[in-house]
Structure formats: structure tokens, C-alpha cells
Amino acid sequence: MINIIAYTIMFIIGILAGKLVLFINKKKTEKNVSIKQKPNKGLIFQIITAIVFLLYAISLKIDFENVTIYKIASLLLGYIYIIIILLIGQIEKRTNNIDKSVLGAGVCVSLLHMIYLYIVMPVRYYIQISSYLIYLVLFIIFCIIDIFIMKKKAERSYIIQILMLYTFMSMFSNELVMLVVIIILALSVMIYYIARKIKSARLKVVKKEEKLYFHIGYVIGAIHIAVLIFNNFYLL
């Protein structure tokens, strides 16, 4: 009974988290984007977020009748991570840019996560913490490159932004999970462009200057969350 009540609360928290993501997304993009989001899409996004929150909680196999501090901490950090990834994806979908402030906040959260793991189980997570430090150095290097390109060309490099996002996500998961994410992303990109080519051929539309935007930040975030949940269920 307690578990049912707890999971119901997780679902409600997911709806509120969806509202929060949409609110922050609106505030951050309203100056750059004139298109208003339809209320129905907002509601669907909140429901999807709630389902994701519920699945993530279930995937951790938490027994709320005998819950531990470690499980609660893992749940809360996971929820914060999901919110950050969803927010980055929503902003990228509307602006074609990875928001640096949100990404920076995510790195701070990941740092707290690693410190917590080291305090709780230093021996078990020694290798993971070592990998985290490598990813942190890589993230800082990409940030410096991003700043350099911005000053030189007055615009950010999308490739560098995606590398920053990928490095950040790597801080929250192992190499096997990230490999699966890359494979699924590559297949998604291939299917997307093949579908667009077929559609253009059927309609006999040829536009040489047309840019086919594939929101990698949005898609890779969604894939990573799905793989993380699957990993918790079946231990990849």
C-alpha cells in the first residue's frame, strides 16, 4: 500500500516537473522564439514526464517500506538529471542551441553526485569517479573551445555543443550505456534523413538551400533517459 502511494506521488511530481521544464523553457526562449506552444502539447509533455518519473522510480526497485538513504539520494539525483536533460532538449528544440547555464547547473549536480558516491562507497565507485574526472576535464576543454569559437566567429559551434552535452551525460552513466546511446542516435539520424529524402522524392521537391534540422540535443537526451531506465531494469 505504501509503495502504491509513493509511486502515485512520483507520478504527480513528474507532472509538476513537466510544468517546471515548460515554464523555464518559455522564460529562456520567449525573446528568441515567436511561436507559442499549444496547450495540448504542453499537457502531453507533462504526462510523458510523469510517466518517465514513474518508470525511473520503479526501475530503481525501491521498497518504500524499507527505503535506504542511498536509494532516496539516487532517486532525487536521477530526477534532477532528468529535469536538466528535458530542459536542455526543449530549449535546443526551439533555439538550435544547448543552453550553457542549464548544462553548467547539470555539471554541478553531477559533481555533488560523485562526491556523495565517494563518501558512501569509495572503493566500489573508485573507477567511476576516475572516469568522471576525465569527463570533467574534457567538458572544461570543450567549454574553452566554445568560448574561443564564439569570440572568433560570433556564433557557437553546434558540434562542440553536442560534444559538451555528450560529455555531461557520460558523467551520469557508464561507457556501455553511452555506446548504446550513440548507436541508437546514429540509426535515428539515418532513418530521419532517408525518410526525408523519400518524402522529397515523392513530392518531387528539390530545394538545394533547404536545411534539414535534426535536433540532436533533444533526441540524444530522450534516448539517454530511455537507456538509463532500461539499464536499471535489466542491468546492461
Name the poorly predicted regions: none
Shape, per Cα inertia axes: globular
Output the radius of gyration. Answer: 19 Å
Beta content = under 5%
Largest sheet: none
How confident overall, as mean pLDDT?
83
What is the H-and-E element order?
A: HHHHHHHH
State the total count of DSSP E strands. Answer: 0
Our measurement of the CA-to-CA distance between the termini, rounded to an integer number of angstroms, reads 30 Å
Tell me the number of helical segments per DSSP (H or I, 4 or more residues long).
8
Structural class by sheet pairing and helices: mainly alpha
Secondary-structure topology with pairs:
Elements lengths: L1 H28 L9 H21 L9 H27 L4 H21 L5 H28 L4 H13 L4 H29 L12 H19 L2
Helix pairs in contact: 1-2, 1-3, 2-8, 3-4, 3-8, 4-5, 5-6, 6-8, 7-8
Report a brief summary of the structure.
This protein is mainly alpha-helical and 236 residues long.
Task: Write a concise keyword list for the protein shown above.
mainly alpha; globular; 236 residues
Written description of the protein model:
This protein is an all-alpha fold. It has a domain of 96 residues. The radius of gyration is 19 Å and the shape is globular. The two termini are 30 Å apart. The mean pLDDT is 83.
